[in-house]
């Protein structure tokens, strides 16, 4: 149980205007959570304070050696005014998995949840309510030792910032076009691919720029060893419906274990669909597209929730998925997941957690 | 040509005491160089200012997506009081190669060199002169957009900080023990391994901790695809003398093209040694150790210059290299490279650049 210190802003910002469509990740609320770590002392000084700048020495290790981790989850306002988090414990578990992989000290799971609730509660008024909007929650940890040389830091800063957001992709629920990358590699088994750390994202930028130039909004990565098995999209896991079966790459150590991925697998099984977590080669995909058995493709992620995929391109082959529109399962998943998140439909799995 | 603005510190720190042995990367000088970038405007406001904290929004992209790069080179004081840089243009070229790979705007090479010279000149008095010491120069760039979402930043901060340093490894020129890693992977072809960016270093921490626990000071990485070919050490390239021939892994896209590596290759060739840049499997190495043809092993890097390797361990096999002492070529390379760096011996390649 954290003994959180509170300092309220004396200078609140205006809430975003209700009629302006919210972008993703550009506006931040009035407060943030912060907590420090020192070797020997552990995590200390948990606090909810006004949103403010971080001041670090230029030698702070985070600027040089990439020892940083983050998470992403969302809070929703229900029609009857309650505030719900969606499966926060999955993010917290994953955060500690990332921490272990990159040698950052873990945070007690209950303390972590308490921290999220504390800052979300403080800025509850910032949770937007228009369809497709929510409050994005960004916990992150950075290495703060003032030291040049490669080793884990002995001091860290943990923060949680909040951003009222709209759709992650400008397309919204409209199908996106995805580029299957055959030159650059994001991650490889034995590496940091399953951790949520900056190094995986910086590795993805060049391919993303290439895809954008070709008119594609996201990159679908192949494995780094054989460069033939499907991994995941820049910020989403990927699903295919092939011949009636829902197929998604299995967790192999180089892809992020998505919370939305897990939710979608559970929902599909709950609906009686057959679901396979296994290796899928790009050849299998091209074949399935050719013979018509590739019925639907969608990405899953906290930011985009469900993102139908209308086109895939691999080298010179362009695949249009069915009519390029929103597939039936994608739509049903989107409606169900967001329905649960907003407390509008039954939550059979107990996924939502109320902030009181 | 940069129009550099100068602001001198009014509060100079005491120089490190001459008799205290310098550690690596813990003390910083009185000034730093800084310059900003904005899309549409380019790099602007080049300045040499007092060493000071950086103040960033918690949403600054560098804290989340790892878009950061760095370089490392050194300045030396000659016996007649001149200040020399060692092959700065190689670092500057590599910096721009890193920049291209991770979508950071390039910096004009002449401007870059001018910036290094300007700040080194300002803090020239900080260059230590004891044997084995030097002024370590750390240029780095961080992404500063206040934005959550994966894309290249549109604003950056470029800085150069300076640190008077002693030996990088506590061992100094004494042979280090190196652990050949068979579980974790640092980088893979198609990834960011040849770029000098934080993501590669964070990926190395867990293996480094494991090696430390076993009494080894550094990790030698294998390739990410077959996990069988030698790549490089945590912060050094690696060389072997096998049967009279100097062998080093060829630049394959996943290892850093070291400046010291290049210098060592040139020196060895200059001395008439046969040098091969090629793939070397761990099996070949074990064989060579067994039949006695593995004559010498050393690492090369700006921080350590030349670091003789006395022991290698791969899984359950421990290899002692010859008598575990400093090899003949290692010693000659160390003497020659540092001799050139300090302006004490002839510089046949024109590697040193004077700061005037
Ligand atoms: C690389 C990557 N894959 C997948 C996901 C989807 O994970 P989640 O559903 O937990 O948001 C994300 C985003 O969080 C991601 O960054
Ligand atoms: C991963 C890695 N390999 C090799 C080197 C050696 O390169 P250089 O000789 O340019 O210092 C370094 C250090 O710079 C490094 O970080």
Automatic annotation (TrEMBL), chains A, B:
Gene Ontology MF terms in the entry: branched-chain-amino-acid transaminase activity
Lineage: superkingdom: Bacteria
Coiled-coil ranges from the UniProt annotation: none
Alphabetized CDD domains for the sequence: BCAT_beta_family
Xref: Gene3D superfamilies: 3.30.470.10, D-amino Acid Aminotransferase, subunit A, domain 2 (3.20.10.10)
Key word Membrane present: no
Keywords, comma-separated and alphabetical: Amino-acid biosynthesis, Aminotransferase, Branched-chain amino acid biosynthesis, Pyridoxal phosphate, Transferase
Signal peptide: none
Catalytic activity: L-isoleucine + 2-oxoglutarate = (S)-3-methyl-2-oxopentanoate + L-glutamate; L-leucine + 2-oxoglutarate = 4-methyl-2-oxopentanoate + L-glutamate; L-valine + 2-oxoglutarate = 3-methyl-2-oxobutanoate + L-glutamate
Pfam hit, one: Aminotran_4
EC number: 2.6.1.42
Cofactor (UniProt): pyridoxal 5'-phosphate
Pathway: Amino-acid biosynthesis; L-valine biosynthesis; L-valine from pyruvate: step 4/4; Amino-acid biosynthesis; L-isoleucine biosynthesis; L-isoleucine from 2-oxobutanoate: step 4/4; Amino-acid biosynthesis; L-leucine biosynthesis; L-leucine from 3-methyl-2-oxobutanoate: step 4/4
InterPro entries: Aminotrans_IV, Aminotrans_IV_CS, Aminotransferase-like, B_amino_transII, BCAT-like_C, BCAT-like_N, BCAT_family
Gene Ontology biological-process entries: isoleucine biosynthetic process; L-leucine biosynthetic process; L-valine biosynthetic process
Record carries keyword Amino-acid biosynthesis: yes
Modified residues (N6-(pyridoxal phosphate)lysine): 196
Cross-referenced NCBIfam families: ilvE_II (TIGR01123), PRK13357.1 (NF009897)
Family: Belongs to the class-IV pyridoxal-phosphate-dependent aminotransferase family.
Name of the protein in question: Branched-chain-amino-acid aminotransferase
């Amino acid at each position: 149980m954290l003994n959180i210190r509170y300092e309220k802003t004396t200078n609140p910002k205006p809430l975003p205007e209700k009629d302006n469509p919210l972008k993703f990740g550009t506006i931040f609320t009035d407060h943030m959570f912060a907590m420090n770590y020192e070797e020997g002392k552990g995590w200390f000084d948990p606090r909810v304070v006004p949103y403010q700048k971080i001041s670090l020495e230029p030698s702070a290790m985070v600027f040089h050696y990439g020892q940083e981790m983050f998470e992403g989850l969302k809070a929703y306002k229900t029609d009857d005014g309650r505030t719900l988090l969606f499966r926060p414990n999955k993010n917290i578990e994953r955060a500690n998995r990332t921490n272990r992989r990159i040698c950052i000290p873990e945070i007690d799971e209950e303390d972590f949840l308490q921290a999220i609730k504390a800052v979300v509660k403080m800025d509850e008024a910032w949770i937007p309510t228009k369809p497709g909007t929510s409050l994005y929650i960004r916990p992150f940890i950075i290495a703060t030792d003032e030291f040049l040389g490669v080793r884990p830091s002995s001091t860290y800063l943990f923060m949680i910032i909040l951003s009222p957001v709209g759709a992650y992709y400008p397309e919204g629920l409209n199908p996106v076009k995805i580029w299957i990358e055959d030159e650059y590699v994001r991650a490889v088994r034995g590496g940091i691919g399953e951790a949520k750390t900056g190094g995986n994202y910086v590795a993805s930028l060049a391919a993303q720029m290439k895809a954008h130039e070709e008119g594609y909004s996201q990159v679908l990565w192949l494995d780094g060893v054989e460069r033939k098995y499907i991994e995941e999209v820049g910020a989403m896991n990927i699903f295919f419906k092939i011949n009636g079966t829902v197929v998604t790459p299995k967790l192999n150590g180089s892809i992020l274990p998505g919370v939305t991925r897990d939710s979608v697998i559970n929902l599909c099984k709950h609906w009686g669909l057959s679901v396979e977590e296994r290796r899928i080669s790009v050849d299998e995909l091209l074949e399935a597209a050719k013979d018509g058995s590739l019925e639907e493709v969608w990405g899953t992620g906290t930011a985009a929730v469900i993102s139908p995929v209308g086109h895939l391109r691999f080298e010179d082959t362009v695949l249009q998925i069915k009519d390029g529109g929103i597939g039936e399962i994608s739509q049903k998943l989107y409606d169900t997941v967001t329905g649960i998140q907003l407390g509008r439909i039954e939550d059979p799995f107990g996924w939502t957690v109320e902030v009181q």
